[in-house]
Amino acid sequence: MTTAALLLLVAAVLLASTGPLLQPASAQGLGVAPDLLGAGAQATATAFEEFEDVLNLATVGGRGRGGRGSSGNIGGFSDARSFEQTQAAMYYIAGSSHTYLSPVIGKPRDQKSCLTCVAFAATEAVEMAVACAMHLDHTQLEGKGLTASPVSLYYCAPGGRSCNTGWDIPQALRNLVDAPQWLQPNVCMEKALAEEGLREAAVLNWPRMCRKAANQKACRTISRAQPLYTCSYKSLSSFYQIQQHIRRHGSVITRITIPNDWEVQFNSSKRTVKGLDTPAYKFNASAKAAYGHALTIVGFDNQNFTWTLLNSWGSGSDPDNLRVKGGITADGMVKVSMGLLGVAQPEETYGVTCEPSMGTSENLHGNMPWITDTNRRLLAQLPANQSQDGTCFNYTTRPGEDVAFIVDHFDLDIRAFVQHEANRGLFRLEDFTYKFAYKLQAAEFALSLQELSLLVYDGRFPPQLGSLNRLKYVSIRHHCLTGTLPPFLMRGLPKLNSLIVSTQLQRTYVSPSGDQCGISGSIPVSWQKNKSSITYLNLAYQRLSGKLPDITNWPMLTYLELQHNSFEGEVPLVWQNFFNNVLNKSLEPTADGGVVRIDISHNKLEGTFPRWDVPVANSVYVMPFRYLFLDGNTKLKGCIPVSGFSIVQYADTYITGLCFGDPGSAQWAQVVALNTTFRQMLRFGQINESTILGTLPVEYGNWPSLKSLNLKDNNLTGTIPPWSNLSSIVYLHSNNLDTWDSAPQETGPVATPRYCRLFKGVTCDKSNRVVQLNLTALGMGGQISKLSLLDITKVISPLTNLEVLVLARLGLSGGLAEVTQANPNAFPNLAVLDVSTNPGLTGPLPEELAVLTNLRVLDVSGSDVSGSLPISFVALQELREFRAVNCTRLSGSLPVDWGMLTNLEVLSVTSTYITGPLPSEYADYMAVRKVAVRAAAAAAAAATRARAAAEQSKRALGHPVTRSSGNSSLDADTYRAQRTRAVTYFNTAQRRAAVAQKVAQAVQAAASNGTRGRSSSGLGMLKLRQLLLNDNKLSGSLPVQYAQMRDLQVVNLSHNTLTGTIPRVFASLTKLTVLGLGHNQLHGPLPAAFVSLRRLAVLDVSNNKLNGSMPTSWRLMAGPGFRLQCLLLDSNTDVLITEEGSRGLMKSIEIRIPSTGLAINNSSSPLCSAMG
């Protein structure tokens, strides 16, 4: 075997001839007759001409191939995309063998007299794609029952076809995706027909027959939600793509026009001859088109210019085959010369990709277990003395492998691979994807992995975890995980004892796209039916729904946390069986285990809590559970059948208490009376300024409708009782919140504080310290609308662990400087500050906010802030999002210093009076280095001035104003006023000095990072995803440097006064989905290179001074592989798009799958809504 396929030189590997040179087409007697085939023939003929030229260039360097030479189709390219496609085709063909036959071809099938050729071709392609994916031959595929019935697909898929109807290829392929339940094993329909004693052509009631087939044992579990296969398909636009798909997936589906001389060239003498040994169908000038047909291409010969096809007319060796005149071969295969009969027509030839669906026996957990070490191509890292930075690897090829195979297997871009090989002779591992998620499977982990902890931002719950069958502990903390719980997870993890799937900060989230985060659906029935050793199940703060699970088969369960979901219905009566098992074990509660804790609070449960027998009512050692939390289930009623030694909380429910309470107790009677009497009556309570003495009564906690409670200015002693029933309270005013920030005691069990469990908008960490405070969620706007921001920050400033502070839509007044005015060291951990939609917040954006150096999100949208954007904000090096939407009083220019905000991902400043140019420094790392030096010097100078002012205020405070000798009342008042001003000046100056010093330190640290010779990847706003600067007064040109912001997805610079041309280098922003440049003064042509923006959905360049016309290459943007849905080109100097151009785009959009529609020059269309 040959070594170092990844270290080969291009000249040696790709351009070396692997066989005889290709002969000119004329020498083979080939020709192209467009009139022979009807529609599509010219496209096929043209594709063949281009393919010949690519072969010519790839094999003999473009020097001509005999008498025919080159057609001249290569050399003039309409756009960059066509050149890249030709380049890739040339490299791929040069690096692959000239002949190929799929190794997964099955036995020939016979469609007999019915017009079902499309279904036969589709199912053959499905079977071969599955065989390639699983590395099986067709015999092994049949042994596993992984066949596909063309009869089921044809007659049962939506559309109502008969034996004589026929079918279209695209419609059939759509059903592979939209109705996959009809991809059934052959045996189901065969048994159904046999039981009825019918042949296919004799069936009159196909819906009934389809139901009968679906009810066969092998097909009962197949449904649309759980199909046998998961398939996709695509149209192929060139011979090179067709050959590549055949190598990867076994076959492609093609149309063919059968001519009237087919049975002449394949006469009856060919019935006993294999197709590969039979001459190919050749051009016949007198032949005419007879009818259309569909079959699969399973091989090719680039030396003799032929395709190898698998037909669906059965085998010539079958004595029952009705085609006695000919047209068939012994193995059902035939060869056709390239360019004839419409075979491999561009865009009308389709490739199918399939694999067993997750949940089937072959792929139960979605981990694709057929990907094993024997099917992987493993790399060996080169020694350090032979490697570049430790990223070079050796690969040993196997027999039959060529460069094209390596490119296919490792998902390489063959153009980049060739260029790397040519330029440096080595290909680095960092340059390609090794398909880790699909290649590194359970085999590497399952033998040892027992504990798994993940912290993820988004995605779906990974069902592949079910294959790691030794796992005992799984913890997935997330911000925005979605999807459903895998139904077979518990079956695959028999040793699992702890499963935790919870949000990182124990709250519900909304994704940036507006979707609700969290796992949805119900707890799978299969989890409940199988015995499990699970002891800890935490699925809190998700979007789970349906009934509560049956936990009878989870006898070891001690912790069940399902709070903050949407479970509905009654608490299952069968839970009594579980609790009886617990009682029989006589579990003794201890600090470290042995207690049962169930939290099903804040769901949608209703009905009466079920009653069951408790053997000993008042024993600390015998109880069904120690903790039960039912709060927030507003329709739950009845009593709780447990002993008084269980801790039960049921705020905001109709639960009356414990069924085993002592009815003779005066305290119990008082609780019942208060609960009954005040439940519907009491809406507001105030206990303040009345000099209440002593402690607060526990019974006050039984007022579930209480909204506001003020305990300020009294002589109360003791602590606030555990008022677990005050579920409606939203305003609790005591003198401070210091206790909200206290960690629990180090020893002894500590119950979770009530404010962590019940207060809306309050989120605590594991140590019960408040880390999130969302006053908007409290619905307190009406109660605190008269408060200033300073009033709130003074109260909550003791919360030093606070990470998220949301004060949006509260009608607050004051200035933003009040956030740090009371204490410059307040909120040291604050990461999110949202004060949006408070028009009463006025004044400039304060420099002091720069002391919040951990800030990641700052939102002042909809406020009345004014002035310029502070330069000091460069100290916020952790800042990811800055939003100032509709802040109409902001002015000045965009600070160039903000180019130092290297982690910024969202910059949204709209509807302001900000003027000046777009700073090129935001993407120019050399300019940022200079800015960093200047910013550090400016911050240091500001700190020096602030310290001088602080010293001056200190001296003024130490020299009070001298009183006059008369000592009159006026003198005393003047003295006090001056003294007060001196104290105020001193406090303000000291605070400003402290703030300036912290800002200077942060800016200097950021500047130091920016001037230590770091690479350009670490400087500037190169992580920016959204740049929203619309509706301002910006001027100047579009900086070409912004092309370096490769992560940009949304750019809206509309409604400014920008000039110049649209930089063509913006075509490198390949992640762009929205580009808004409308309502400016841009001129020049539209960049043709924008055709590379495949993800672009909305493009607005309307109302400018652009000239010329829409580039021809832009028509591709409406076709397959692109996402364009809104194109606004109107109101420019020239008419950029004609009616004919619009029709061309709309025609292209019709063949896009899936079709998204396209709005042209219609800004009011919903398709353009992404522009806002």
UniProtKB/TrEMBL annotation:
Organism: Tetradesmus obliquus (Green alga)
Listed PANTHER family: OS05G0588300 PROTEIN (PTHR48010), PROTEIN TOO MANY MOUTHS (PTHR48010:SF5)
Compositional bias per record (Polar residues), positions renumbered to this chain: 962-971
Domain Peptidase C1A papain C-terminal: 105-315
UniProt subcellular location: Cytoplasm, Cytoskeleton, Cilium axoneme
Pfam families, per database record: LRR_1 (PF00560), LRR_8 (PF13855), Peptidase_C1 (PF00112)
UniProt xrefs under PROSITE patterns: LRR
Residue numbers spanned by region Disordered: 952-971
Name the record gives this protein: Peptidase C1A papain C-terminal domain-containing protein
Keyword flag DNA-binding: no
Signal peptide annotation: 1-27
